[in-house]
Amino acid sequence: LHLVALNLPFSGDMRADFQCFQQAQLAGLTSTYRAFLSSHLQDLATVVRKTDRYHLPIVNLKGETLFSNWESIFNGNGGQFNIHVPIYSFDGRNIMTDPSWPQKVIWHGSTANGIRLVSNYCEAWHTADMGAMGQASPLKTGKLLDQKVFSCSNQFIVLCIENSFVSDPQG
Which residues form the Collagenase NC10/endostatin domain (predicted)? Predict the structure, then answer.
C-alpha cells in the first residue's frame, strides 16, 4: 500500500480525502487513496481495510518499504520509520527535502495508537483558526505519529494512504 503526500501543505481546514482521491487520479494511480488522518467518522487505524492491514507492506511512491504492514504503524512506538526512505508527493517530490513544504510536519489528529483525538483535530479538519489545535508529527523524529500539538493555522504536510489493494489483472 502506497503512502504518498499531497502536492502542497495544508492548514487544518482541508478536504483531505477528496484531495487524496483527486491527486491520485491526476497522477494516474488507479486505487483509492484516503487521508492519513483521524476524522469525525473514523480513527486513523481503521482507514485501511481489515483484510489489507497485516500482509501488505506500506511503501513510498517508488515502492521502497516504510513499514512492514499497516498495523505496525500503530504498535505504540509512534509509527517509527526509517528517515532514509523518502516520502514522495503525488507529483514525485521528496517532502523531506523539497522547499514546497517548509515545515517538515505531518497532520494526523490521532493518538500513538491511531485513535482520533477530538480535542486536537482542527474541528474534524474544518478550521484553520489559530486558536484551534491539531495533533501533528515532526518528521525529523522519524515518527508518523509523534504527539505534538500545533495551531490549525499552520500549513503542514498531509499524507494519503492507498486504502485498498487492487491487484493488477494483467499481472
Answer: 1-166
Quick check: 60 and 85 in contact, CB under 8 A?
yes
pLDDT digits (tens, 9 = 90+) for 93-127: 999 999 999 999 999 999 999 999 999 999 999 99
The pLDDT tens digits for 17-40 are 999 999 999 999 989 999 999 998
- Reduce the DSSP state of residue 105 to 3 states and report it: strand
Whole-structure pTM value: 0.94
| Domains assigned to the chain | 3-162 (3.10.100.10)
Give the cell for residue 110: 490521532
* Cell digits of residue 23: 491527486
- Alpha carbon separation from 92 to 8, 70, 131 (Å, rounded): 12, 22, 34
Number of other CB atoms surrounding residue 114 within 10 Å: 23
Q: What is the H or E stretch that residue 137 is in?
A: strand 133-138
